[in-house]
Amino acid sequence: MTTPPIPQVNCEQLHPSLSVSDLLAATDFYTKKLGFRLIFTWGDPPTMAGVNLGHVQLFLEQGTPSPQGSAVYFVIGDADEFAASEATAASLTTLYEFQRDNGVEVVQPPGDRPWGLRDYTVRDLYGYALTFGYRLPGAVANPLKIERVDVPVRLEKRLAALLHDLAGHKRMSVNSCLEEILLHTCEPLGEGVASPHTKRDLIYIQELKKKHGIDYDCHAIPVCRRRVRRHRTLASRCQRESVVSFFCRKVRTRLTLNPHNAASSATGAATR
Q1: What is the domain range of residue 129?
Q2: Residue at 219 is within a domain
Q3: What is the DSSP letter of 6?
Q4: Are 36 and 135 in contact (CB under 8 A)?
Q5: What is the Cβ-side half-sphere exposure of residue 197, based on CA atoms within 13 angstroms?
Q6: Which of 62, 88, 205, 242 could form a disulfide with 77 if both were Cys (CB 3.0 to 4.6 A apart)?
Q7: What are the tens digits of pLDDT across the range 148-206?
Q8: Is residue 84 classed exposed, middle or buried when 0-12, 13-18 and 19+ CB atoms within 10 A define those classes?
Q9: pTM for this predicted structure
């Protein structure tokens, strides 16, 4: 029997779902004590709710709680941020202090874990374990052995200035920043290519473009010569077609006005 191929599916989000005996009490606990936002409730009276921490959504459903063997792990920060920034670390500390000060049971206080994250664990009012953490800088499980070589690179002056500032923003060398961009843009993602930049990075890049006066289109430099040649070719073609169209209209007009001389007019026009 032939095994069917595994389907290729792009999964956008994951929604954990926890059963709770009192939906209203659960949403109140998650929003007022854990720092989540209530996004929706469903049913009258409500039997399901969605609460968000950032862009990640957790479902709460009316039912019998079953916390044994159930746990949810939240990674704080941008999804494509390999190592936490100072802002991300501060966010986790603020969240922990908010939950602790609201009387939430702390199962494990914040600490660095051997798996490369700093995290802490609390329990909700039904006993579910909720862990919040962020990736530690330099935590690589199996580092690749690579060899780097010198490559002569010339960049547009303003773009080079942007790259230098962006590398400083990301706490990287210019070489590493350029290498990261190249590695990501060689990987397809959806209808385009991957990007190594977080949302904060992209906002900062727009600021750098203004700072360094980068007002040209990102594709303008490499294709401008091709566009000029294409436009000249089209213009020349349109000009030739216009002359031919004018001549043909003139011939048709003469044939219509003097049908008896149609054959001779057409012959003369062709000769001329």
Answers
A1: 17-135
A2: no
A3: P
A4: no
A5: 17
A6: 88
A7: 898 888 999 999 999 999 988 877 888 888 988 998 889 888 888 888 888 888 898 99
A8: buried
A9: 0.56
